[in-house]
């Protein structure tokens, strides 16, 4: 009886992961203890197609130690032929009542944050390897100097999904 229960749970987990058919790339890197302002998290990506449109996301896992209602990130994309595009992005991380946003039942929340594709799907128009660099750019109100060590962020991820039209 116990063996059947474990088999059922295993099958349920496999089905959940198999249903993610839009995923093209999905990877995470852990942040050791606190995220330093000069620490850049990098992902190297070789998209499968230079014609199809995609949606791109920055994924974050954070704990209740994250004390801000928003998050500023600098996300840089280095194209294969030398072009570099750098964006400063702001994300809402907490509801007005202070409750952290994101998915998860424990004190770890997972956030899927739009990077490119929300207005119109993104096309990797150059063949080859792209590099995506992610760095935090947090500042406290009224202070010029940025937050040196950001508490509460445990993992940074990057995700590429096929659009619904693919």
Q: What percentage of amino acids are in beta strands? A: 35-45%
Overall number of strands: 11
- CATH architecture heading: Sandwich
Helices and strands, in N-to-C order?
Answer: HEEEEEEEEEEE
At CATH level 3, the topology is Jelly Rolls
Helix content: 10-25%
- Overall pLDDT: 87
Largest sheet: 5 strands, antiparallel
How many distinct helices? 1
How many angstroms separate the termini?
43 Å
CATH class: Mainly Beta
Residue windows where pLDDT falls under 50 for at least 5 positions? 6-17
Could you say which overall geometry the principal axes of the C-alpha atoms support? globular
Written account of the structure:
By secondary structure, the protein is mainly β. The chain has a single domain, classed as Jelly Rolls. The longest helix has 17 residues. It is built from one helix and eleven strands; from the N terminus they run H-E-E-E-E-E-E-E-E-E-E-E. About 7% of the residues have low confidence. Strands 1, 4, 7, 8 and 11 form a five-stranded antiparallel β-sheet that branches. A four-stranded antiparallel β-sheet has the order 3-9-5-6, with no helix packed on it. It has a two-stranded antiparallel ribbon with strand order 2-10. A hairpin with a 5-residue loop joins strand 5 and strand 6.
């Amino acid at each position: 009886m116990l063996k059947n229960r474990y088999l059922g749970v295993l099958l349920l987990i496999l089905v959940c992961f198999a249903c993610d058919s839009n995923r093209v790339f999905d990877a995470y890197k852990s942040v050791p203890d606190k995220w330093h302002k000069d620490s850049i998290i990098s992902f190297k990506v070789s998209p499968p197609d230079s014609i199809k449109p995609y949606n791109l996301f920055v994924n974050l896992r954070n704990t209740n130690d994250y004390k801000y209602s928003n998050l500023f990130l600098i996300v840089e994309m280095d194209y294969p032929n030398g072009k570099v595009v750098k964006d400063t992005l702001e994300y809402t991380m907490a509801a007005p009542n202070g409750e952290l946003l994101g998915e998860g039942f424990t004190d770890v929340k997972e956030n899927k944050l739009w990077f490119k594709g929300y207005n119109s799907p993104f096309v990797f128009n150059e063949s080859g390897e792209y590099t995506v660099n992610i760095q935090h750019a947090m500042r406290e109100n009224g202070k010029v100097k940025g937050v040196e060590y950001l508490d509460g962020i445990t993992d940074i991820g990057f995700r590429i999904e096929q659009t619904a039209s693919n």
